[in-house]
């Protein structure tokens, strides 16, 4: 069951279905920052808004974009939240808010109030605070670059470091699979289709082995959106200790992400040498990145971290666990009053910056990555209940989400990414278990809801 604070933050900041023009828009990071700062000044926390007279609690709040009616509408989405969370939880997803103790410290320290208030994810969330090597690059590149990315992931695994990437086809996926196939660990920050990735055959065994974590600040069922892809770039860099761009064009997501990292100086930026005359690798070096050493196998990843900026603390947490209160979000476009800026400086976490610098200076062994830290029995039950599902159970969850209307074998193959032999075997079992019904002429399969099952029984 979600904690009251998590419920409130989700209701105010998250989508539970594909957005429409008629519904109230959840608060953006910037809007959430303004509203959270006001709550803090009123000596309130988000969960206070779930009970009592809301109009009375919002007395004195004035904002042309974040109206009281908008807040009321967002908070009234309890049923939508419950339905969405039931679906996502059954598929193995969890929710992580900035008030949670295992929210990534690197994001809090480097992004301050620009760190997302909510992440959706699946897999081993303990990996989020262990850093790693960010490997990024183009979706379409040469076979040689893809092999290099795969080898880079394997080397990272052998060095006891996670690969941090975006999970997109091309360089990202090659590096992540290189690490995972070498029994290493990986962090995938997705811009779209988190729910599908969480239930895909490609990643399932690594998620169940606690060697992978996938997360996204966006609606788990969101399709590709260029803006979301650009926005998530900063999270890849800020979760890592150093970054390597294997191949970049002269524009687009990889290029813009590298430029942003160079300007913000989040982590050391390295670029692979290339003979591709159309690549933007050389231009990125001219703008401040460094050439990746040819003898990386000899120098090791420790060399790539040497220029890391130890003063990573660029801001404060919005709902720091120790204080359980909001701090203001300060942006160039929306200046705050001097008192708000002073308060943010007062609560900036030097301790977080120190922990981040210490974590970045030393690698963690592979076993440490894969083994979750000790938790209470209640926490253990909650966190492991879903990972104990069998592969067949995960298949049923995926099937339940995808077969609202009858699906052919070809459609299910595309959706599940399973081998045809495995798909047929599990479908046969699902029919025997009365989980799906098989339709003929043409052959299709449909999930049997409880009311449908009763109808078939009565017949």
Which value, in Å, is the CA radius of gyration?
Answer: 23 Å
Total number of beta strands:
11
Major sheet summary line: 9 strands, mixed
Secondary structural class? alpha/beta
Total number of helical segments?
23
**Cross-sheet strand order for the largest sheet:** 1-2-6-5-4-3-7-8-9
How far from one another are the termini? Answer: 38 Å
Q: Give the low-pLDDT segments.
A: 308-389, 451-459
Return the average pLDDT rounded to an integer. Answer: 79
Sheet-strand content, in percent, reads 5-15%
Shape: globular
How much helix is in the residues?
Answer: 40-55%
Outline the structure in words:
Helix content is 46%, strand content 9%. It starts with a helix and ends with a helix. The longest helix is centred in the first third of the chain and has 16 residues, at 143-158. The protein has 459 residues and is an alpha/beta fold. It has a nine-stranded mixed sheet, with helices on both faces. Strands 10-11 form a two-stranded antiparallel sheet. Helix 6 packs across helix 17 and helix 7 runs parallel beside helix 8 (171-181). It has helices spanning 4-13, 29-41, 54-57, 68-75, 78-90, 105-111, 143-158, 171-181, 194-198, 201-208, 226-238, 253-264, 281-286, 296-299, 301-304, 338-347, 350-360, 366-370, 377-384, 391-402, 409-416, 420-432, 450-458, and strands at residues 94-97, 118-123, 133-136, 163-165, 186-189, 212-216, 242-245, 269-271, 290-291, 436-439, 444-447. The protein is built from 23 helices and eleven strands.
